């Protein structure tokens, strides 16, 4: 994460509400809300795919977790995070958070088929 | 989360690799990797904004956390999640996961200014 205090969003928010602190925060929050909606929709699509993967793995007797694949995903996301000025540690925690949920889904799918 | 086993991604992956289970998984994983790159870049942008919010709050003696705002965000994301067939519980866990990181950043910014 960059330690520079000025960035494009800061300048946009200040332009939007020079006098009123409430307006400045509101401008920031509108951008955060837009990004959160995008994140939720991307996550919904991601789980649609992993659900299909879960059914596929259960149908082919493949294990729910795949440590070698996870290691590759983590290395790739850490590298993407660094390039985007996102803390690589956070990107790894985030992927583990999502993968834990996915493995939990896959286990449920396999248990339902046994 | 829908319990239907067939979806667009499943059909795409099967079309891509009818015979070879490895090819089917590879097709799914390419889509997951694309979505993960999008998620990482959205998260990077989100933290750029919350970092600006942190500096703004510290400069105006505003508290790092805002429970009323968080409650509104959770209700909104749960509703977006339901509409997108994402488990609302997961969307709430996800937002808390992100907000915990943000509050941790805000506290660091305020501590640095004290």
From TrEMBL, chains A, B:
GO BP: any one term: chorismate metabolic process
SUPFAM superfamilies attached to this UniProt entry: Chorismate mutase II
Ranges where the record places region Disordered: 1-20
UniProt source species: Luteipulveratus mongoliensis
Pfam name, any one: CM_2
TM regions (residue ranges): none
Keywords: Isomerase
Any GO molecular function: chorismate mutase activity
Chorismate mutase domain: residues covered: 19-110
InterPro entries linked to this entry: Chorismate_II_sf (IPR036263), Chorismate_mutase-related (IPR051331), CM_bact (IPR010951), CM_dom_sf (IPR036979), CM_II_prokaryot (IPR002701)
Protein name: Chorismate mutase
Source taxon at top rank: Bacteria
